[in-house]
Amino acid sequence: MLATNPFAALSAFIPPGAMQAYLVLMIVLVAAGTIFDIVHKGSARYFFDNWRRTKGKARKVSGGEMLSLAAQTAVVDVLASGEFCSMRRRIAHLLTMYGFILYVVATAVMVFRYPTPATPTPDAWPHLWWLGAVMVLVGGYWFWFFIRVDVAAEGSSPFRVMRADLFVLSLVVSVTLGVIWAWAQASGSAGSMVWFALYILATTVLFGSVPWSKFAHMFFKPAAAFEKRVANADGTRANLPAPADKPEQFGSARTAPRHY
After folding, report:
1. 66 CB neighbour count, 10 Å cutoff
2. How far from each other are the two terminal CA atoms of the chain, in whole angstroms?
3. Is the per-residue pLDDT at 116 higher than 90?
4. For a surface tag, which of 7, 36, 107, 215 has the fewest beta carbons within 10 Å of its beta carbon?
Protein backbone atom coordinates (compact mmCIF):
# COMPACT_ATOMS: atom_id res chain seq x y z
CA MET A 1 0.00 0.00 0.00
CA LEU A 2 2.75 2.46 0.91
CA ALA A 3 4.40 1.91 -2.48
CA THR A 4 1.19 2.30 -4.52
CA ASN A 5 0.28 5.49 -6.34
CA PRO A 6 -3.36 6.02 -5.27
CA PHE A 7 -4.01 8.47 -8.10
CA ALA A 8 -2.90 5.99 -10.77
CA ALA A 9 -5.40 3.43 -9.46
CA LEU A 10 -8.05 6.15 -9.47
CA SER A 11 -7.60 6.58 -13.23
CA ALA A 12 -9.87 3.55 -13.73
CA PHE A 13 -12.79 5.73 -12.59
CA ILE A 14 -11.69 9.33 -13.32
CA PRO A 15 -9.76 10.45 -16.43
CA PRO A 16 -6.21 11.62 -15.64
CA GLY A 17 -6.97 14.88 -17.46
CA ALA A 18 -9.74 15.63 -14.96
CA MET A 19 -7.39 15.07 -12.01
CA GLN A 20 -4.75 17.30 -13.60
CA ALA A 21 -7.32 20.01 -14.36
CA TYR A 22 -8.44 19.90 -10.73
CA LEU A 23 -4.89 20.48 -9.48
CA VAL A 24 -4.45 23.39 -11.88
CA LEU A 25 -7.73 24.85 -10.61
CA MET A 26 -6.49 24.61 -7.02
CA ILE A 27 -3.29 26.45 -7.97
CA VAL A 28 -5.36 29.17 -9.62
CA LEU A 29 -7.57 29.45 -6.53
CA VAL A 30 -4.54 29.87 -4.27
CA ALA A 31 -3.00 32.53 -6.53
CA ALA A 32 -6.28 34.41 -6.95
CA GLY A 33 -7.10 34.15 -3.26
CA THR A 34 -3.67 35.44 -2.24
CA ILE A 35 -3.92 38.41 -4.60
CA PHE A 36 -7.42 39.18 -3.34
CA ASP A 37 -6.17 38.98 0.26
CA ILE A 38 -3.31 41.37 -0.50
CA VAL A 39 -5.63 43.88 -2.18
CA HIS A 40 -8.44 43.56 0.36
CA LYS A 41 -6.24 43.88 3.45
CA GLY A 42 -3.82 46.36 1.87
CA SER A 43 -0.78 44.37 3.02
CA ALA A 44 1.51 45.41 0.18
CA ARG A 45 0.36 49.03 0.39
CA TYR A 46 1.12 49.07 4.14
CA PHE A 47 4.70 47.85 3.65
CA PHE A 48 5.40 50.26 0.79
CA ASP A 49 3.86 53.23 2.63
CA ASN A 50 5.82 52.39 5.75
CA TRP A 51 9.02 52.10 3.71
CA ARG A 52 8.42 55.53 2.14
CA ARG A 53 7.66 57.16 5.51
CA THR A 54 10.87 55.90 7.08
CA LYS A 55 13.13 56.24 4.05
CA GLY A 56 14.48 59.66 5.02
CA LYS A 57 15.01 58.72 8.67
CA ALA A 58 16.70 55.38 8.11
CA ARG A 59 20.36 54.53 8.02
CA LYS A 60 21.39 53.35 4.56
CA VAL A 61 21.70 49.57 4.44
CA SER A 62 24.31 48.32 1.99
CA GLY A 63 23.65 45.69 -0.65
CA GLY A 64 25.83 43.16 1.13
CA GLU A 65 23.97 43.73 4.38
CA MET A 66 20.66 43.31 2.53
CA LEU A 67 21.84 39.95 1.18
CA SER A 68 22.88 38.92 4.68
CA LEU A 69 19.47 39.91 6.08
CA ALA A 70 17.72 38.02 3.28
CA ALA A 71 19.81 34.92 4.02
CA GLN A 72 19.05 35.19 7.75
CA THR A 73 15.35 35.54 6.97
CA ALA A 74 15.38 32.47 4.71
CA VAL A 75 17.34 30.27 7.13
CA VAL A 76 16.07 31.40 10.53
CA ASP A 77 12.55 32.72 9.95
CA VAL A 78 11.43 30.56 7.00
CA LEU A 79 13.33 27.26 7.08
CA ALA A 80 13.63 27.03 10.88
CA SER A 81 10.50 28.98 11.95
CA GLY A 82 12.63 31.03 14.32
CA GLU A 83 9.78 33.41 15.20
CA PHE A 84 8.32 30.81 17.58
CA CYS A 85 9.74 31.04 21.08
CA SER A 86 8.12 27.77 22.15
CA MET A 87 10.06 24.75 20.95
CA ARG A 88 6.88 22.64 21.01
CA ARG A 89 5.11 25.03 18.69
CA ARG A 90 8.13 25.34 16.43
CA ILE A 91 8.43 21.57 16.04
CA ALA A 92 4.71 21.23 15.33
CA HIS A 93 4.91 24.02 12.77
CA LEU A 94 7.97 22.52 11.06
CA LEU A 95 6.37 19.08 10.90
CA THR A 96 3.24 20.55 9.33
CA MET A 97 5.11 22.84 6.93
CA TYR A 98 7.61 20.33 5.57
CA GLY A 99 5.02 17.57 5.58
CA PHE A 100 2.66 19.74 3.54
CA ILE A 101 5.42 20.52 1.03
CA LEU A 102 6.27 16.83 0.63
CA TYR A 103 2.60 15.92 0.37
CA VAL A 104 1.78 18.55 -2.28
CA VAL A 105 4.90 17.93 -4.38
CA ALA A 106 4.41 14.15 -4.32
CA THR A 107 0.74 14.57 -5.26
CA ALA A 108 1.59 16.82 -8.21
CA VAL A 109 4.32 14.47 -9.47
CA MET A 110 2.13 11.39 -9.25
CA VAL A 111 -0.87 13.08 -10.90
CA PHE A 112 1.04 14.75 -13.74
CA ARG A 113 3.98 12.38 -14.30
CA TYR A 114 2.53 8.97 -13.39
CA PRO A 115 -1.25 9.34 -13.84
CA THR A 116 -2.03 5.73 -14.82
CA PRO A 117 -0.69 2.22 -14.04
CA ALA A 118 0.68 2.17 -17.60
CA THR A 119 3.44 4.50 -16.36
CA PRO A 120 4.89 2.76 -13.29
CA THR A 121 5.44 5.08 -10.35
CA PRO A 122 8.81 4.86 -8.57
CA ASP A 123 8.32 3.72 -4.99
CA ALA A 124 9.90 6.91 -3.66
CA TRP A 125 6.94 9.13 -4.60
CA PRO A 126 4.20 7.18 -2.78
CA HIS A 127 6.56 6.86 0.19
CA LEU A 128 7.08 10.64 0.22
CA TRP A 129 3.32 11.16 -0.10
CA TRP A 130 2.64 9.00 2.95
CA LEU A 131 5.54 10.51 4.89
CA GLY A 132 4.31 14.04 4.17
CA ALA A 133 0.76 13.09 5.16
CA VAL A 134 1.91 11.59 8.47
CA MET A 135 4.02 14.67 9.25
CA VAL A 136 1.04 16.96 8.57
CA LEU A 137 -1.23 14.86 10.77
CA VAL A 138 1.25 14.68 13.67
CA GLY A 139 2.05 18.41 13.54
CA GLY A 140 -1.53 19.48 12.82
CA TYR A 141 -3.28 17.43 15.49
CA TRP A 142 -0.56 18.21 18.04
CA PHE A 143 -1.13 21.91 17.41
CA TRP A 144 -4.93 21.57 17.36
CA PHE A 145 -5.36 19.69 20.62
CA PHE A 146 -2.39 20.83 22.72
CA ILE A 147 -0.77 24.05 21.49
CA ARG A 148 -3.47 26.45 20.31
CA VAL A 149 -3.41 29.64 22.38
CA ASP A 150 -6.99 29.49 23.61
CA VAL A 151 -6.69 25.81 24.55
CA ALA A 152 -3.35 26.04 26.36
CA ALA A 153 -3.85 29.43 28.02
CA GLU A 154 -7.59 29.64 28.65
CA GLY A 155 -8.60 26.02 29.03
CA SER A 156 -11.17 26.23 26.24
CA SER A 157 -12.49 23.13 24.53
CA PRO A 158 -10.25 21.85 21.72
CA PHE A 159 -13.41 21.51 19.63
CA ARG A 160 -14.12 25.26 19.72
CA VAL A 161 -13.85 26.44 16.11
CA MET A 162 -13.26 30.03 14.92
CA ARG A 163 -12.61 31.46 11.48
CA ALA A 164 -8.92 31.74 12.33
CA ASP A 165 -8.88 27.93 12.58
CA LEU A 166 -10.13 27.44 9.01
CA PHE A 167 -6.71 26.80 7.48
CA VAL A 168 -5.30 24.30 9.96
CA LEU A 169 -8.66 22.55 10.37
CA SER A 170 -9.30 22.18 6.63
CA LEU A 171 -5.68 21.03 6.16
CA VAL A 172 -5.79 18.22 8.73
CA VAL A 173 -9.29 17.15 7.62
CA SER A 174 -8.21 17.08 3.96
CA VAL A 175 -5.07 15.05 4.65
CA THR A 176 -6.91 12.73 7.05
CA LEU A 177 -9.56 11.99 4.44
CA GLY A 178 -6.85 11.52 1.80
CA VAL A 179 -5.09 8.93 3.93
CA ILE A 180 -8.36 7.11 4.67
CA TRP A 181 -9.28 7.13 0.96
CA ALA A 182 -5.87 5.80 -0.12
CA TRP A 183 -6.03 3.04 2.49
CA ALA A 184 -9.63 2.13 1.57
CA GLN A 185 -8.79 2.05 -2.14
CA ALA A 186 -5.70 -0.12 -1.62
CA SER A 187 -7.76 -2.47 0.56
CA GLY A 188 -10.46 -2.79 -2.10
CA SER A 189 -13.14 -1.23 0.13
CA ALA A 190 -16.48 -0.60 -1.60
CA GLY A 191 -16.77 2.80 0.09
CA SER A 192 -13.46 4.18 -1.19
CA MET A 193 -15.16 6.54 -3.65
CA VAL A 194 -17.22 8.04 -0.83
CA TRP A 195 -14.01 8.81 1.04
CA PHE A 196 -12.56 10.23 -2.18
CA ALA A 197 -15.56 12.56 -2.62
CA LEU A 198 -15.14 13.80 0.96
CA TYR A 199 -11.40 14.21 0.32
CA ILE A 200 -12.06 16.37 -2.73
CA LEU A 201 -14.62 18.45 -0.82
CA ALA A 202 -12.23 19.14 2.07
CA THR A 203 -9.34 19.87 -0.32
CA THR A 204 -11.48 22.34 -2.27
CA VAL A 205 -12.34 24.11 0.99
CA LEU A 206 -8.63 24.21 1.90
CA PHE A 207 -7.47 25.81 -1.36
CA GLY A 208 -10.64 27.75 -2.12
CA SER A 209 -10.89 29.52 1.23
CA VAL A 210 -7.60 31.43 0.98
CA PRO A 211 -9.23 34.91 1.29
CA TRP A 212 -10.87 33.87 4.59
CA SER A 213 -8.17 31.66 6.11
CA LYS A 214 -4.52 31.98 7.10
CA PHE A 215 -3.29 30.14 4.01
CA ALA A 216 -1.89 33.34 2.48
CA HIS A 217 0.21 33.94 5.61
CA MET A 218 2.79 31.49 4.31
CA PHE A 219 3.53 34.05 1.59
CA PHE A 220 3.27 37.14 3.82
CA LYS A 221 5.38 35.95 6.74
CA PRO A 222 8.74 35.80 4.90
CA ALA A 223 8.18 39.34 3.59
CA ALA A 224 7.16 40.59 7.03
CA ALA A 225 10.16 38.89 8.67
CA PHE A 226 12.55 40.43 6.14
CA GLU A 227 10.98 43.88 6.59
CA LYS A 228 11.40 43.56 10.35
CA ARG A 229 15.08 42.68 10.03
CA VAL A 230 15.66 45.60 7.66
CA ALA A 231 13.83 47.97 10.03
CA ASN A 232 16.05 46.86 12.91
CA ALA A 233 19.17 47.20 10.77
CA ASP A 234 18.39 50.72 9.50
CA GLY A 235 17.37 51.97 12.96
CA THR A 236 13.72 52.72 12.28
CA ARG A 237 12.36 49.63 14.09
CA ALA A 238 8.86 50.32 12.66
CA ASN A 239 8.67 53.39 14.97
CA LEU A 240 8.99 51.18 18.05
CA PRO A 241 11.31 51.96 20.99
CA ALA A 242 14.64 50.23 21.34
CA PRO A 243 14.65 46.92 23.22
CA ALA A 244 14.97 47.19 27.00
CA ASP A 245 17.87 45.60 28.85
CA LYS A 246 15.48 43.36 30.79
CA PRO A 247 14.78 40.12 28.91
CA GLU A 248 11.26 39.27 27.81
CA GLN A 249 9.27 37.23 30.31
CA PHE A 250 6.07 35.35 29.57
CA GLY A 251 3.70 33.60 31.89
CA SER A 252 4.25 33.77 35.63
CA ALA A 253 6.26 32.11 38.36
CA ARG A 254 3.45 29.59 38.82
CA THR A 255 2.50 28.97 35.19
CA ALA A 256 5.06 28.08 32.57
CA PRO A 257 4.47 29.76 29.18
CA ARG A 258 3.37 27.19 26.60
CA HIS A 259 1.63 29.20 23.92
CA TYR A 260 4.02 31.93 22.72
Report:
1. 14
2. 39
3. yes
4. 36
